[in-house]
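User: Hey, my collaborator sent me this sequence without any context and asked if I could get a structure. I don't really work with proteins. Can you help?
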Amino acid sequence: MINDGMQEMLKSVGEAEKVLIGIGEEFQYDWNALVQDHRYHEIEAEIGENNTYFWITPFLQKMILRQSLQDKWKTAYSKLKKLLEGKDFFIISLCMDDYIYQVGIDEERIVTPCGGFRKMQCDQNCSHVLADISEDSYDAVLRYYRKELSLEMLREPVCANCGAALRFNQLGVTKYAEEGYLGSWNKYTKWLQKTVNTKVCVVELGVGMEYPTIIRFPFEKIVFYNQKAMLYRIHSQLYQVGEEISGRGKGIQMNALKFVCDI
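Assistant: No problem. I've predicted the 3D structure and written it out in structure-token form, which is a compact way to encode the shape of the chain:
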């Protein structure tokens, strides 16, 4: 159901020369699908406090993501893609579930600075080079999940250069390899330079205060300095817009995922 705030935002996107989208935690995949899985609880019990096998969890997360793209996420990203058709846009997403890459949105116009499950890295980032996903390790974990392999048969993937553990390239590893997103970030900053004195529609979808220096604060700054820019901040709780841009900013109190699904 389209409400007044949604109608205004859609009109602004349609009239804008450029569209900047920020996606936050309200769009992040709900990992309850994993913790509610009976087999996952069996695995937790089997591993116990043995941190030798903690590396299995992100592989299980990747398995869940591969096997079940839930309808509301697919709907939301598909509608976002349609909304941006024919527009000069860029998207910054804090989500690490990689769903945004699964609906055909131009990857050259996306940057995910928190990483995800598409590449792996040395936990110590010894060579500053990313590695492809270890499919052998993934398949072994999948077979273990299916009870086709014993826990003791699993082998954690390691860096070919230094022997440290290989991790998914995402925030949380010991030394996060920013090389995974810096190329896309450079494209974003070059795109952003071209927004000066142009009509820009800036949309925040479920962006909270987890990493405010990546989206919230910079987006406010863009709108503050560009008199032709307009910000729409959609969030179930943190939708408020500062007084300094109140004339060119609108807060919409609504869960961002539901907001996009309802378009």
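In plain terms: The chain has two domains: 1-29+70-113+178-263, 30-68+119-175. You can pass these tokens on to your collaborator as they are.
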